[in-house]
# Entry
Amino acid sequence: MNVIERIKAVLEAEARAIQSVNVDESFESAVNTILACSGKVITTGIGKAGHIAHKFTATLCSTGTPSVFLHAAEAAHGDLGIVSANDVLIAFSTSGKSREVIEILELSRHLGVSHIIGITSHPDSELRDHCEYILDMGMPKEACPLELTPTSSIAVMLAISDAIAISVMESREFTKEEWGLRHHGGYLGRAARTDNEPK
# Structure
């Protein structure tokens, strides 16, 4: 195997998958739903999708939108108590068939969650039946030679979540000063505050 060529092929496969996403009105509706949320944004997922959901929550929090990650497995053991009637729930699942995630959507409805948004791929995804809005990932071909390891699909999921988070941030007219207030440590926090410090 030529390692350099293989790495290039993986990067190209993931880039193609991202560029193939069909951005329709559901994406705008998702942004508007988050902006109108009077509670918090709850993200959930399991496995690799759960890691992306967790990262999305971190990005939202740092850009002015209160958010919390709900682990799909821990929800069955009391963590579902974080859900309230004014919240927006965003579920991440490539297949849309993960039992743990589907159960959260069903139970969150009983708890009166405001809206549910899904990020998924498979056309027969059960997740689609529980959501007002679907951010469709298309059917990305995994870069893994076994076509099993989540690669292209996870790249698409991450890109979609970043696009939503940045669109929400810009719609809020979120400033560099506000960004700096949420990052009191690290290089980025210092960089954000530098322009706002007294001369």
